[in-house]
Specification:
Chain lengths: 147, 174, 507
């Protein structure tokens, strides 16, 4: 029997909830504290918890490092891509109103903020996981007992 | 006198944290402890902004939509642009994060809105602090791998012994 | 819709924002590129595009005076505005052109100094630093300055640390730079906090108007001024706060050193000018006294101390790094005078020094590329082994001393006339004395290059091995620019004059 049985069982229940909470914080940023950075950190914390309990090799199977690298770029490109889209639609950079033009209701602003916050979520979550992978994958040349 | 201290005690806390952090940076020989001191120093700045921006009795600055008969949200102001810059020792990239902030004008003595601007500024500064800490720790990891120690005095001694005529005469690093 | 894009008017209108967005987007794409040559091509294309865009902005500013851009369609003071005028347009152009020249140089030099797997991320970090510097200079919002300052600084720490494949002291230097740079940036943000407390706005022009209307000089404003000057002083390597610079310049890859030496401190100096003269009301008492007693005095002390230290260095790059600190002292002296002549002289020295130091560091990097040497004593006989590189180094060195016919002479002469006009005869003496010190330390290098014999290995003289063409072009472009603007100095002086005019002619 594995000594960390309780941790493993509980974390299998909780990690999906952590990710869902992260998504809740992400979309709740419109109405209260929240937004892309906080949500990204929460999602990354869930992934890191998985790595702590199940080992970094299992975590790298679940969230491959190549995805992480692509995710960093995709997030930033989503953000700046929103700005380029507003450029193409004829307005100045990041002028969200033209994304969904509606004179009575700021729908363009809503859509624009949603998109950029999504970009921020991808970037922050993948960067935090990438930093963790970079630190945790380094093989120490001193065993822990020799310090 | 006492009322002045009581009203301004937040600045006292900020000063104490700031000086503690700076002292730890100056006085530590260990590289990780210096980074910890830097973090404490930056935290004091966050406290300064947040306590400065407190509006007593303020509500979140969201204007409730009042239906078709009401006026549109007046002059929703946007401000705040945070750049998130993260670096591991292998890759460095940046992302821009603009947060739309609400109106900070007081609405005709009816509702007192909190000012979201200091909080947005602090979020930016926190992200910058996290990125700095990440790069700093990555550098410490590398220094440990290359030099074998993270005490600055020992690193200086190794460098000095190496720099004299380019090598240590015994041919090994002490 | 699409036909409106990429038309000339659209490019002119959107150029300020494109200057920041283009390098950032290309940076993240570069980070995941698989091949180094592809990454280099992307960086080269981006820097050339930014040079063109910054030239367009410069031309607009020369024609119209001011270029403004409201980000996201939100007009200031509600939104973030980009504000380009005569003070920062030349610096934008300088940063872009130096970035392009250094990237051309990097095609060869990076293959010798950075491990293959790390080269695409290295180029990505360079683009982020490039974007950060451009953003820092172009923005018209005070907190945005801090954001881009940190964007450029953090990527610079990474870039400096990449020199560890060459010399492991780069790691230590990068760490020191990180600690000191973060302290400086945090001081800057504390000052901004106090400014925000006092004025309630973050837009630069708005802050200036509010402070002027309020009469200036309240204690909160003075504290804000103190913190901001210390924070920026750390970034621009003002005398006692310069300790990070020698290590960072000496051990980082030569591509990075040349770029940083020519741009990073200049951007911070621009910010100091902007804050001291435009945002804070320069007629306030505390600003006048701090200009004279703080900036000018620390500038002169830095000139002497750093020049003296430069004379005794063995490593050629550390020598030039200390020389950089001394040259920044000259600029601070010019600014500290506060008069229109002084500001013009300081700004001209800024432009000239960027060309000079860039050329010198590029030459030293080429010498390292071919022979792997960094010490002054090992530069013996360089005239025979690498004649073109040595000649460029001699030209740039003469410009650093201030020999007539180079841009260095123009700026030093401007400083001398400004000091004499202001009645500061001690400053005149200081400038002359430190020029003699510069003669000594550059003379050491020139003596080794010109008068000594090339070293012998196993009894045979080292063979002649000139630097590759892609390295020669950037260094000779900068060296020739030193001479050209030394002889035909109309353009730098006119740009500097406009910059001084923007600052209200000083006091």
């Amino acid at each position: 029997m594995n000594t960390h049985l309780i941790l493993r069982t509980v974390s299998k229940l909780l990690i999906p909830l952590i990710v869902i909470f992260g998504l809740y914080v992400q979309f709740h940023g419109d109405f209260g504290p929240g937004g892309g950075f906080q949500a990204g950190v929460i999602v990354a914390a869930g992934v890191i918890l998985y790595a702590l309990i199940f080992g970094i090799e299992a975590c790298k199977l679940a969230v491959p490092p190549s995805w992480v690298r692509i995710g960093m770029t995709a997030g930033v490109l989503l953000y700046t891509g929103t700005g380029v889209a507003t450029w193409i639609m004829g307005a100045s950079f990041l002028d969200y109103d033209v994304l969904a033009y509606n004179p009575h209701h700021p729908a363009g602003q809503h859509l624009g903020i949603l998109l950029v916050e999504l970009g921020v979520l991808f970037t922050v979550a993948t960067v935090m996981v990438a930093v963790f992978y970079a630190f945790a994958s380094r093989t120490p040349d001193l065993k822990d007992g020799d310090w | 006198m006492l009322t002045m201290i009581a009203e301004h005690f937040n600045y006292g806390v900020v000063i104490i944290l700031m000086m503690t952090g700076l002292y730890v940076v100056f006085a530590s020989d260990n590289m990780v402890k210096k980074l910890v001191g830097l973090s404490v120093f930056q935290t004091s700045v966050f406290l300064l902004y947040i306590t400065m921006g407190k509006v007593r009795g303020g509500v979140p600055p969201i204007i409730e939509p009042t239906g078709d008969g009401g006026h549109e949200p007046v002059a929703s102001a946007g401000h705040g642009e945070a750049a998130i810059s993260h670096a591991s020792e292998q890759a460095s990239h940046g992302a821009e994060h603009a947060a739309q902030a609400g109106d900070h004008a007081v609405q005709a003595a009816e509702i007192l809105y909190s000012n979201p601007l200091p909080h947005v500024l602090i979020l930016t500064a926190i992200v910058v602090g996290v990125a700095t800490l990440a790069v700093g720790l990555a550098l410490v990891v590398r220094v440990r791998e290359v030099y074998g120690t993270i005490e600055e005095a020992e690193i200086d001694a190794i460098n000095y012994a190496f720099d004299l005529e380019g090598y240590n005469p015994e041919g090994e690093i002490r | 819709m699409l036909s409106a894009i990429l038309s000339p008017e659209w490019i002119v209108r959107e150029a300020p924002v494109a200057l920041i967005v283009l390098p950032l987007m290309m940076a993240v794409i570069t980070a995941i590129l698989p091949r180094e040559r592809l990454a280099w091509l992307v960086v080269m294309g981006t820097t050339i595009a930014c040079s063109v865009l910054s030239f367009i902005v410069l031309r607009e500013v020369l024609a119209n005076g001011v270029v403004d851009y409201a980000l996201g369609g939100w007009e200031p003071p509600l939104g973030i505005a980009l504000h380009v005028d005569g003070l920062n347009a030349p610096i934008l152009f300088l940063i872009s052109v130096i970035g392009a020249l250094c990237t051309l140089y990097a095609m060869r030099s990076v293959t010798a100094e950075v491990e293959p797997k790390k080269r695409p991320p290295f180029y990505a970090a360079f683009l982020v630093s490039f974007a950060g510097l451009l953003g820092m200079v172009i923005t018209g919002d005070a907190f945005n300055v801090f954001v881009f300052l940190e964007v450029s600084s953090i990527s610079t720490y990474v870039l400096v640390a990449m020199g560890s494949s060459r010399d492991r002291r780069a790691l230590n230097s990068a760490y020191n730079y990180l600690i000191l740079g973060s302290i400086g940036a945090t001081f800057f943000v504390i000052g901004l906090g106090f400014l925000f407390m006092e004025t309630g706005t973050l837009n630069m022009i708005d802050i200036a108007a509010t402070l002027k209307a309020a009469g200036g000089g309240s204690r909160v404003v003075q504290v804000a001024f103190a913190f901001i000057v210390v924070g920026l002083g750390l970034k621009l390597a003002m005398f006692p706060l310069h300790l990070w610079l020698p290590g960072a310049y000496a051990y980082s890859p030569s591509y990075v050193t040349a770029f940083l030496a020519a741009t990073a401190t200049k951007a911070a100096l621009y910010l100091l000018l902007r804050f001291v003269f435009t945002i804070f009301d320069p007629s306030a008492d505390f600003i006048i006294s701090s200009l004279t007693w703080l900036l000018a005095v620390l500038g002169v002390v830095g000139m002497f101390a750093a020049s003296l230290q430069a004379i005794f260095q063995n490593d050629a790059r550390r020598l030039l790094a200390f020389s950089s600190v001394a040259q920044i002292g000259y600029m601070l002296l010019g600014i500290g005078m506060g008069t229109a002549l002084g500001l013009t002289a300081g700004y001209t020295h800024l432009l000239g020094h960027a060309m000079t130091k860039g050329a010198l560091f590029l030459c030293l990097g080429a010498v390292w590329y071919r022979y792997g040497i960094t010490r002054v004593s090992e530069l013996n006989g360089l005239m025979k082994t690498m004649p073109l590189t040595a000649t460029a180094m001699i030209i740039a060195g003469l410009s650093l001393i201030g020999v007539p016919g180079t841009i260095g002479f123009i700026s030093k002469w401007a400083l001398l006339t400004a000091a004499a006009d202001n009645g500061w005869w001690w400053a005149v003496g200081a400038i002359v004395a430190t020029s003699i010190l510069a003669l000594i330390y550059i003379g050491r290098m020139l003596e080794a290059i010109l008068l000594q014999e090339p070293p012998k290995i196993d009894g045979e003289t080292v063979a002649r091995n000139e630097a590759p063409l892609t390295m020669l072009i950037p260094m000779w472009t900068l060296a020739l620019a030193c001479i050209y603007f030394g002889i035909n100095s109309a353009w730098p002086i006119e740009l500097a004059g406009r910059a001084a005019a923007v600052l209200g002619g000083g006091l």
